[in-house]
Amino acid sequence: MASAIASLAVPDPSHPPVIAARSITKRFGDFEAVRGIDFDVARGECFGFLGPNGAGKSSLMRMVSSVSPVTSGELHIFGMDPATNGPAIRARMGVVPQTDNLDQELTVEENLVIYGRYFDLARSQCRDRARELLDFVKLADRAGSRVEPLSGGMKRRLTIARSLMNRPELLLLDEPTTGLDPQARHVLWERLYQLKEQGVTLVLTTHYMDEAEQLCDRLVVMDHGLIVAGGTPRGLIDEHATREVLELRLAASDRSGVAQHIGDLAVRVEDLPDRVLVYTPDGDEALARLRAAGVHPLGSLVRRSSLEDVFLRLTGRTLTD
Amino acid sequence: MNALVRVMPALPGTLRRSSRMVERSVMVYRRTWMIIVSGFFEPLFYLLSIRIGFGALIGEVTVDGSLIDYAEFVAPALMASAAMNGAVYDSTMNIFYKLKHAKLYETVLATPLSPTEVAAGEILWALTRGLLYSIAFLICIVALGMASSGWILLAVPACVLIGFAFAAMGMAVTTYMRGWSDFEFIPAATLPMFLFSATFYPISSYGGWAWAVQISPLYHGAALVRAAALGDASWGIVGHVTYLVVMAGVGLAIAGRRLGTLLRA
Ligand SMILES: Nc1ncnc2c1ncn2[C@@H]1O[C@H](COP(=O)(O)OP(=O)(O)OP(=O)(O)O)[C@@H](O)[C@H]1O
Ligand SMILES: [Mg+2]
Questions:
Q1: Residue B7: pLDDT over 70
Q2: N or C: which end of chain A has fewer CB within 10 A?
Q3: Model pTM?
């Protein structure tokens, strides 16, 4: 634990972190949604938050977006304190909230234009950027439409375009691709990658492990308001999972002996209702040992461990709430 | 005083940011400008009814010892009431919808605007509409020959002040509303004010209850507009203006604070 968190501090002192959080908590009445979290985000990196429903990801994002005050602890963004420099921080930041809150009384294009005006951009600049961003998220043909009739995925893309109106240095995305079709997701990943190339710092939450693996330089797993692990995607897999996973479908009578037959190659065996998972450094060899012992699975699959295995390992398979 | 000095340099930025909310409303109403034009008809019908009806029946009333035409007595009070009603509508139902249903303020507070700037901006919009509406009202009064003094032009800024006071207070009250049913209470406050603020008869008619009438903010508003319409300068005006300015300030402070606590959980 201690080592995981130490590795989250940004090492290079000549580049102060964009976000520095020390023991921050968030309390709603007598419920503590965030219970003391430390992390740094360096300029230009993509930092991810993973965690089951209710883990406190959105509560944390709202604190970082400088709209929700921290209950205790210290939070600095661009070296400034949100409690006293909220407007200056928000001016340099883009926010995509978990639920779209577009302006229903305005058209698609007007949504972007007025948002730019909130950031004090000149009118002509707002119009230029709006057009540019509508192209960017492939909504140019809907510019004059009202927001209401747009599909869920289109609204999401518009919200993302809106967050870019002020050319943010730091972009906060709370489940940006939830509700997007696979094409739109891949387009968005590409766009986020482009932004990162341009030096924009990205912070995102997601329930998609492939997304986290694709995009994030570093990520943390949250559970019950705490960080339970952190590091690079590869590092987390190495630390919390084995290299490979052997998935087995077995007759009920064969289930009990699996660990015994595989022996030292079975680092951990998980007995699920529909299949048995064997965490192992060498899936093929483990399978061979099983067969040698006279167990013939109804089905088998050897695959590399993924972030999903780490996630389930750390946060459990049962629904938390 | 110290606080004031610290706020002063920040004021232009605050005002500019607040005006963004007005800009947004202009964008919204650009498509529905007929609603604003229709605002012309309401005062016209009100004033016509007085001109034709009451005016003929009642003729003249005595105010502070001098006789004036009844239509000229009532018209300013109606103008003040219209300013009140417009401001109350804009700052209660409209604001509640944007606060609870459209989540507009949630969006805006992710930008550099502060809750107080948002509140001020929405009130500024209510005033802009109120200004247009008051000008329409004034044109109707003059067109129907119900004005006798050029000072009546001052009725427009007086109505803007009335609008400011009621919009600020209306917004403050709205931040405490739990659901649409709570809005039933609003006419319960504005209707008695409309009827008993020395609107239809002089304050002297209330006898021993005159003090109660003077609590009503609309009384001060109507008195102010009437003073302008009749070109009637007196020290009482200072009192009326002070009452409304204080009401506006208190309302704005409460609205800004409450918006902050509601939206920055
Ligand atoms: N405004 C609020 N008032 C009271 N409780 C809240 C509030 N916002 C969040 N919570 C509670 O805090 C906890 C964490 O919520 P949060 O939205 O941060 O979770 P999350 O990790 O974003 O979950 P999800 O993956 O479902 O979006 C939940 O138990 C939630 O009920
Ligand atoms: Mg969330």
A1: no
A2: C
A3: 0.84
